[in-house]
Specification:
This protein is of the alpha+beta class and 319 residues long. It contains seven helices and 19 strands. It has an eight-stranded mixed β-sheet with strand order 1-2-3-4-5-6-8-7, sandwiched between helices. The longest helix is centred in the middle third of the chain and has 16 residues. The radius of gyration is 22 Å and the shape is elongated.
Length: 319
């Protein structure tokens, strides 16, 4: 296995291609800027630093083995100007995993170019290199980067608190990931357009009840629950789930960063001491401390509609 892309790689508005010594000035233009380097693991680069990278790490045109990274320059179609660069790191051949990175010229920000380029990179990762899982690691303060990951349908899986003393300050890291099957699901009708509202999703209740659920062992529950992701908005990260609580489940006190609504389909759910049956609805504002569990012997199946990414946090001794 390995990756030998056919260059140039074309997306709608961009060209991705290997970097060459001719990109020296273009790379220095933005990689020397402190604001560009604020949340990335390198300091502003001068011409010597860029030249050295071009002669070594960025000279690669493909990936032969894991541990290697492929850096590609990004140009606007027809203009020949370097507007940024993207990186695909092949983390593990055994686990078919990789990681993406991206650095763009601030003069070309807020046009969706970085999103489009990383989308192209994910095509290489999943379609050509055959990866199963691709991650992006983002400094919590780097909101444009986190938004980009969410726009691509990457799931926020971890919030690591003060995991690094980064450039002299303790920093939090957000870890995003997308799996091969999630990527394929996004591409059933071709590439999604991150600027368009997603089309309506229609699922009839009997079909919903028959959905296959995956077992998810989450820290907040004493046993695995059944989960099926129904919908994720590519821009806001809002997520809708079909959830099945097994009978007898207990949940630790927790809260979600997003407001959310539960609609019970089957069985009974106990919420704040009240038993809710099929057709019942309850809403939790963002940050509410949650106390709920299945009430009946059959467990409970419900739809959970989150307004945004459903980050969850355990709450000790509150309530
Ligand atoms: C991270 C970084 C690449 C993000 O840049 P960006 O300009 O926000 O990203 P894009 O080019 O994809 O543009 C997306 C923005 O353009 C908007 N946009 C406009 N036209 C668009 C289009 N046709 N398609 C998609 N988005 C479009 C989007 O709504 C979005 O704005 P929002 O974030 O306010 O919602 C950039 O900030 C950067 O290079 N930072 C320095 C290096 C860095 O930190 N890298 C990340 C390390 S983890």
């Amino acid at each position: 296995m390995g990756l030998v892309p056919r260059y140039p790689i074309r997306t709608e508005r961009l060209v991705l291609r290997p970097l060459t010594q001719a990109d020296l000035d273009g790379l220095v233009t933005y990689r020397s800027l402190p604001e560009v380097c604020r949340y990335v693991p390198f300091e502003p680069m001068d011409a010597d630093a860029v030249r050295e990278q071009l002669a070594t790490h960025w000279a690669r045109r493909g990936l032969d083995e894991d541990g290697q990274s492929l850096g590609l320059g990004v140009e606007l179609v027809g203009e020949g100007v370097l507007i940024g660069d993207v990186l695909l790191r092949w983390t593990s051949e055994e686990h078919r995993s990789g990681e993406v990175g991206y650095v763009f010229h601030p003069g070309y920000a807020r046009h969706g170019y970085a999103t489009e380029a990383v989308h192209g990179l994910l095509h290489l990762a999943f379609d050509d290199l055959g990866l199963h899982r691709v991650t992006a690691r983002v400094d919590l303060r780097n909101t444009p980067s986190a938004r980009l990951a969410r726009r691509l349908g990457m799931r926020e899986e971890a919030h690591l608190r003060e995991n690094e003393c980064f450039k002299g300050e303790w920093s939090d890291e957000l870890d995003f990931a997308i799996l091969e099957q999630e990527w394929r699901a996004q591409h059933v009708d071709g590439c999604p357009d991150p600027t368009l509202p997603v089309a309506a999703t229609v699922v009839r209740i009997p079909d919903l009840a028959g959905r296959e659920l995956r077992d998810a062992a989450l820290e907040i529950y004493d046993r695995p629950i059944g989960v099926h992701l129904l919908y994720r908005h590519p821009l806001t990260g809002a997520e809708h789930y079909l959830i099945r609580y097994p009978p007898g489940l207990t949940a630790a006190s927790h809260r979600h960063s997003a407001a959310h609504t539960f609609i019970v389909l089957d069985g009974e759910l106990e919420v704040e001491g009240e038993r809710l049956g099929p057709g019942s609805y309850c809403h939790f504002p963002a940050g509410t401390v949650m106390h709920h569990a299945p009430a009946g012997a059959r467990g409970c199946t419900f739809v959970a509609v989150f307004d945004g990414p459903q980050d969850v946090e355990l709450v000790d001794g509150e309530g």
